[in-house]
Specification:
Helices cover about 35% and strands about 25% of the residues. The protein is α+β, with helices and mostly antiparallel strands and about 260 residues long.
């Protein structure tokens, strides 16, 4: 195995400088994607930039209009946070259903988003809730952040600092988990702000996407029954050993219905 340099920066700005200076370095947020990839020989970075010592990337807070979560906040911390449970309970529920206890205690929200795994849970919440991703360089709207398979709008050396979630929403998440990994075979996050409805789907395509047909149907009638007649085109969806594109297309309105039912009680 070749030598790997190890950096432990004390600030986001320092971490970004290190990342820019070495394009072959990889950022270590929680290690749940980088380390398995290295073990499998799929990744051979020149250096690891460990973000664990950067205090500004930790924590959860609110100004009454926005819930802010630092990029290095673990899934377990999001799930356990009284602030998240009170103000965005669907996000706490989603975090509690990620992987197993070990993954939840090591994995971070920023690491998950930067990796943009097609079956990850957090992207559905970020997109449906219309969150803003604050980086070392700018703020990126959720609609512009996810660009494809393991691909985002982040530029080389650009690192996620925090997520800003608007609070004036009702939201719910329904997931059909793959039993072994607990990744989403399909996950649907429904968010409602007044009469506006956003529906984000994970696990079904190359990356998270908005289900506009469901948004239109629920905008007309925000009831579980409104999802029943919506057809999702399987032509753009994923097929694998866990489920065909047609199966995933069938699951999307079913899970949207469950999410709306949760939201309405």
């Amino acid at each position: 195995m070749s030598d790997i340099s190890y950096h432990r920066p004390a600030s986001l700005a320092e971490a970004a400088r290190l990342a820019v200076s070495d394009p072959d370095a990889r950022v270590l947020a929680g290690g749940q994607s980088v380390l398995p990839s290295m073990r499998l020989g799929l990744l051979a970075p020149s250096a690891l930039i460990d973000l664990a010592a950067i205090g500004e990337l930790q924590g959860i807070g609110s100004d009454g209009r926005t819930l802010t979560i630092g990029a290095m906040t673990t899934h377990a911390a999001v799930a356990a946070s009284q602030e998240v449970r009170a103000k965005l309970p669907a996000l706490a529920q989603l975090a509690a259903g990620i992987g197993d206890a070990q993954v939840r205690n090591r994995g971070t929200i920023g690491g998950s988003l930067a990796n943009s795994d097609p079956a990850a849970d957090y992207p559905a919440a970020v997109l449906a809730l219309n969150a803003s991703i604050r980086t070392s360089a700018r703020a990126i709207a959720a609609d512009r952040f996810f660009t494809g398979l393991f691909s985002t709008a982040l530029e080389p050396g650009e690192l996620i600092g925090a997520l800003d979630f608007p609070l004036a929403v009702q939201a719910a998440y329904a997931k059909f988990p793959q039993p072994a990994s607990r990744f989403a075979l399909v996950g649907v996050f429904v968010a409602r702000v007044g009469q506006a409805v956003r529906v984000a789907v994970t696990g079904a395509g190359a990356c998270v996407f908005r289900a506009t047909a469901l948004e239109t149907a629920l905008g007309r009638s925000f009831t579980p029954q409104a999802c029943d007649g919506v057809r999702i085109d399987p032509g753009t969806l994923s097929s694998d050993i866990h489920g065909s594109a047609e199966y995933r297309a069938h699951l999307i309105p079913v899970l949207a219905r469950r999410a709306v039912q949760q939201l309405l009680g």
